[in-house]
Specification:
The chain has 1 helix and 9 strands. By secondary structure, the protein is mainly beta. This is YceI family protein.
Length: 177
């Protein structure tokens, strides 16, 4: 059996996030801390990556003071509680190969110490020395006890409502080891 291990290069990997509300959306980045992927006979078998929740940045708010306030709010217990839960992770538990370097994957997403099953599709292209993975995770924040201004838990929010789903657009670069 031909096994190949790839370690994520955190410096060259990115995650962009988008959160939506009634009056618009916000977007930004969050950093990868570490991770790896394992291939057997040139097929994805498993993988895991860890996100540094303390690294949340906002791209669409230019005013420094407002940006800092918003970043601090996202790090608070209303959202990710980054002090108590500095890491979130996604671990692939099953990968089903498809066409054109696509995989349907099942995994476990952990945010704020809560683990939920999560399915997605991803594209991963490998060479002898590197792997590039692209995926989009649509996350229902309420499953991870992130309830702030959610219509599932609060009424009469009007235009202060924040939609439950947010997107993580993942682009990982990994190197063979």
């Amino acid at each position: 059996m031909d096994t190949k291990n790839f370690k994520i290069n955190a410096e060259n990997s990115t995650i962009d996030w988008v959160g939506r509300k009634v009056t618009g959306a916000h977007n930004g980045t969050i950093r990868i801390k570490e991770g790896n992927f394992i291939f057997e006979n040139q097929k994805l078998q498993s993988g895991k990556f860890v996100i540094d929740t303390r690294s949340i940045k906002i791209r669409d708010i230019e005013d420094t003071e407002t940006n800092t306030q918003f970043a601090n709010h996202l790090a608070s217990d209303d959202f990710f509680n980054s002090e108590q839960f500095p890491e979130a992770s996604f671990e692939i538990t099953h990968a089903e190969p498809g066409d054109e370097n696509l995989y349907y994957v099942q995994g476990h997403l952990t945010i704020k110490g809560i683990t939920q099953p999560t399915d997605t599709s991803l594209q991963i292209v490998t060479t002898d020395n590197a792997a590039v993975l692209k995926a989009k995770l649509v996350v229902d924040r309420t499953k991870f006890n992130i309830r702030f201004r959610s219509s599932n838990f609060f009424t009469n929010l009007g235009d202060t409502l924040i939609y439950n789903n947010f997107d993580l657009n993942i682009h990982l670069i990994a190197e063979a080891y």
